[in-house]
């Protein structure tokens, strides 16, 4: 996954085509060889959804987190993932405001969508190029990211960095297995 900065969906509950936003997302995906991008709001670094997906975070304490319901389109995949989490004893999915700080602090991230189902995210490209590096550095200062988090960031070069996530932990495995059973039921 990648990060699309200064991205704001007008109304996530309407499946309307925002041509500029979609073309920016596609361009970033192609230029950086990423499957999907997370939309990062310009003012508060709120991350509500991907350009064509929802996501769940697995917090460091194994709590499943998702954006506020008013900020996302509640689809079948999310509904079935929530049922699977409950049936598998993973707890309720907590809907809350998620900023880039929570995304970066997560132990695991799962992308949700019609085609991919529930797909673990291995890596998020934080920036590639001077412009996105500057936006990321500004965000780091505004959100006061802790040093422990900053140590997880892998710098490929002066203008490229990413962060890795766990894709094989028990929470991820249980949720994917549970979702698969729910989807096939």
Question: Can you walk through the features of this model?
Answer:
This protein has 185 residues and is of the alpha+beta class. The protein has a single domain (2-184), classed as D-amino Acid Aminotransferase, subunit A, domain 2 (D-amino Acid Aminotransferase, Chain A, domain 2), CATH 3.20.10.10. The chain contains six helices and eleven strands. It has helices spanning 19-32, 76-87, 100-105, 130-143, 147-150, 170-184, and strands spanning 2-5, 37-40, 47-50, 54-58, 64-66, 94-95, 108-113, 117-120, 123-128, 153-157, 160-164. A five-stranded mixed β-sheet has the order 6-5-4-7-8, with helices on one face. A three-stranded mixed β-sheet has the order 1-2-3. It has a three-stranded antiparallel β-sheet with strand order 9-11-10. Helix 2 links the parallel strand 5 and strand 6 (94-95). Helix 2 (76-87) crosses helix 6. The radius of gyration is 16 Å and the shape is globular. The protein starts with a strand and ends with a helix. One of its GO terms (molecular function) is transferase activity. Keywords: Transferase. This is Amino-transferase class IV, putative.
Explain briefly what this protein structure is.
This is Amino-transferase class IV, putative. This protein is α+β, with helices and mostly antiparallel strands.
List keywords for this structure.
185 residues; alpha+beta; D-amino Acid Aminotransferase, Chain A, domain 2; 5-stranded mixed beta sheet; 3-stranded mixed beta sheet; 6 helices; 11 strands; globular; transferase
């Amino acid at each position: 996954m990648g990060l699309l900065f200064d991205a704001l969906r007008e109304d996530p509950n309407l499946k309307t085509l925002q041509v500029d936003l979609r073309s920016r997302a596609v361009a970033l995906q192609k230029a950086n060889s990423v499957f999907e991008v997370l939309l990062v709001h310009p003012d508060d670094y709120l991350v509500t959804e991907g350009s064509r997906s929802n996501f769940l975070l697995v917090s460091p304490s194994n709590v499943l987190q998702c954006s506020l319901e008013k900020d996302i389109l509640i689809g079948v995949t999310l509904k079935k993932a929530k049922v699977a989490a409950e049936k598998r004893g993973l707890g309720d999915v907590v809907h809350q405001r998620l900023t880039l700080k929570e995304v970066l602090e997560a132990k695991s991230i799962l992308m949700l969508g019609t085609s991919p189902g529930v797909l673990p995210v291995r890596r998020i490209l934080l920036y590639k190029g001077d412009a996105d590096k500057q936006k990321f550095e500004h965000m780091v200062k505004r959100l006061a990211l802790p040093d422990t988090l900053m140590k997880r960031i892998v710098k490929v070069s002066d203008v490229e960095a990413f962060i890795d996530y766990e894709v094989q932990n028990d929470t991820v495995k249980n949720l994917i297995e549970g979702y698969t059973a729910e989807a096939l039921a």
